[in-house]
Amino acid sequence: MTNSTRPHTQATQHASESRVVYGVARQRFLAGALLFLFGLVALMGIITAEAFYPGYNAGVQEISDLGATRPPNSVILQPSASIFNTTMMVSGVLALAATYFVHQAFRDRAVTIALGLLGLGVLGVGVFDGSEAPMHGMFALLTFFSGAVSAVVASRVIETPFKYLSVAIGGFVLLLLGSLIVLGLLGIPHPLAFLGMGGVERYVAYPTLLWTLGFGGYLMAPVPEQDAA
């Protein structure tokens, strides 16, 4: 290679690397923005549906009661039901879209599958309201477990100390879910039973939703070139 062609080759390589860095940064940002919107829309949808639900008790009633209570004799109150169910469907689509860009940015199969199942679970919760047994319960359980697993496995792609908080949040939710199932099967009262079923359920759901806000913010932050390449 002559001296005249070497600078041109180096410039071409640098331009190619810059495009790769820009592409990864763009995918990370889109993934982060969509995850942030997912958490925000889901939380605000729940709050709004609660505001329109007469006499709603967050400690006694489950989150899904906002869409419809369990059968038989399911109770569906409007506009709370439409607000909640529509919000869950929109949130599920946002999470699935975020999953696509997370996969493009990291190519980590575990993270992709966990987030994809989270989006699918939330979408299913909106499509099948609380009166649709057993489908609603299956999608709700999928949402809770996949959300917690997402927080744990996301530590594989997080490069800051936030990774430890991510594992802690996911681990807490998994431990709580496991204890609810085991103690329920054994007929033993859960230590958090004083919060009511609705309160305990929020201890499961809200940490995951808040985690998506944090993870989304992390992904939207500028990416050092050595990490994006």
Report on this structure.
The chain crosses the membrane at residues 29-49, 83-103, 110-128, 134-153, 165-188, 203-221. α1 (5-51) runs antiparallel to α2 (80-106) and α5 (162-186) packs antiparallel against α6 (196-220). This protein is mostly helical and 229 residues long. 72% of the residues lie in helices and 0% in strands. The longest helix is centred in the N-terminal third of the chain and has 47 residues, at 5-51.
Write the layout of secondary structure elements.
Elements: H1 5-51, H2 80-106, H3 109-127, H4 135-153, H5 162-186, H6 196-220, H7 225-228
Helix pairs in contact: 1-2, 1-6, 2-3, 3-4, 4-5, 4-6, 5-6
User: What structural class do the secondary elements suggest?
Assistant: mainly alpha
Averaging pLDDT over every residue, what do you get? Answer: 90
- Give the SSE order as H and E letters: HHHHHHH
Determine the N-to-C terminus distance.
26 Å
Oligomer: single chain
Overall geometry: globular
Q: How many DSSP helices?
A: 7
